[in-house]
User: Fold histidine kinase from Photobacterium phosphoreum.
Amino acid sequence: MKVKTFVLMWLRRFKTMVRYRLLVLTSVPIFLTLLTLIAITFYWTVTYTWQNALMNVKADLAVAHHSMVLLKKEQRMELQALANSYDFQRRLRFNETSLKKWVSQQNQQYQLDFVVLHPVSDIGMFSSREQQLLVTGKEQTFFQVLDRIALFDLNPDLPAQAQLPLIKESTIEHKGLVSRSLIPIFNQQGKLKWILDGGILLNNSTSLVDRIRDLVYAADTLPKGSLGTVTLFMGDVRVSTNVPLDSANLIGRAVGTRVSKDVQQKVLQQGKIFVDRAFVYDSWYVSAYEPLHGNDGTVVGMLYTGYLQWPLIERYLTNIIEMSVSILLVLLFTSIIVYRGARDLFLPIEKIYQVAKAVQMGLKRRVGKLDLCEGHELQILGEQFDSMLDQLEQRNGLIKLTAIELEDKVEQRTQSLHQKTEELERHIRLLHQARSKLVATEKLAALGELTAGIAHEINNPVAVILGNIELIQLELGDNTAEVEEELTAIHLQIDRIRNITRSLLQYSRHGGVQDEVTWHHLNLIVEESLTLVRSGTKKMDVQFEVNLVAKCSVEVNRHQLLQVLVNLQMNGIHAMDDKGVLKITTDDWLDDDGEVRGAMVAITDHGCGISKQNMKRIFDPFFTTRRSGTGLGLSVSQSIVVNAGGEMTVESIEGQGSTFSVYLKHKKECPSELDLHVTA
Assistant:
């Protein structure tokens, strides 16, 4: 079985089976409790262990500090023993000339690296604080950093002993860190006569740091595998240490290496104690550092104690793992107990569930006798469940019979309702059609009365203009040749006005005077409309893009078609707010078989477009979205095109522009119905 299938199977069991859900419900609180206990224990042990480690290393530093105090005390006692010795006192009283040379030879006997006797005349070589203490007769011991010359003056062998090769820097440190003691020597009159100067060089003093380490980190005081270390620093350089160069193999000593930047800043620069984990040369140590002060209070070095961090962490992780495994075993044991105890309890429940599932699938099953004692709650539940199934089966039979009778009645009523619904829908459609025809009739009647009045009013001034033009021609006689072109243009425009008014009259009443319908080339009429539109838009920022490729002639009234084209072009210009590119194209109109039916002209603007709400009403009389419009242009244009046997379509995208297309047939046909196609 694949792992994925196994996981999915158990997930389904936990979601659907009661025993497993009970196992989860009883185990989860225990698990969460144990997990919380682990988390609390982990937090507590981490905090406690780490705080305890820091306290221990701080205590180790205190022990090392007291060891250094004892070291300085022993050093001072050695000088005091020298000063109180018989040989020193005898020479001081009877042979002072040999005293200084004799003292310089006593360093090995008193376990000091240098012993020098200074006459009182050399007191100026010491600092003012040291002079003050010497004059008052006070002994003093302090740390001091001396250069190579000062070391040579104390002992010619000291400069060589103090040299430290700085690892990774390819240089040598020549200065030395010394623990120095000064003891004033007075004569019998109580005056300062001599200054006894002695001490030890701390550079490369391995025996000293090893002795302090053995004192601080006694056997079996550290975790197994850990390593306790002690270091003396001169500035930030390790001058004496038992920190190995290789912490894994415990090889060498890290003498001549520098302390980390964090420790240097806090201890050397701020003069504070550092207690925390620190990276000591090649590994992390639980570390403690304290500054070493000179006699004038300045920080001249550091004292360090610490031990490897990893063995402590390893022991801690081992304890955590052991505790976690123990808790998990307890959790597993309790889960097994819960599972075994719940299995016998939930077998009857699972049987009831299986019966319910079988009944749901259409099978006739019953719970029957359960292997439980008389009066058991689950046994009573099973009997009640069987009784309920019997009653449910009886009621289902009654419901089926009632449902059959109800279906017959519903079918009869539905057929009757369906017939009445169809009849009602038919009457509604007829009502809508009648209402639409009535609205259109009322609009056309109003439009007819309006156009008849307008045509009559226009014809009167046109007749006056025509009479005056003919009178002018009569009066001018032969001189009319000079203005013949202008007079001809006036006559043409008067004819155009009369044709328009005649079209209006024809639109307003049926059976009136019919306009002259002849064959015309569509491109010529389009060019004439462009001439008229250009003359009226000279002051507008409108460009015309013209592509006239139609070859087929069409049978139309020239003046009416000219009226339609001018109206569509002006509408496009107004839609672009009197600026932009207006595109006019013509082409042959082909049917589905590629046969020429006539010609078409398309007028495209890049204006605001037409909304879907207005698209259905643009050809209604008096509908307009312009304040200065009358709403008759598109209605009249549509009527002209349809009466000519053609079609008018419009395509528009709101915010991008519209295209009006006029399709005209080669041979005029009387339209049987309104042909108008609108797409958005």
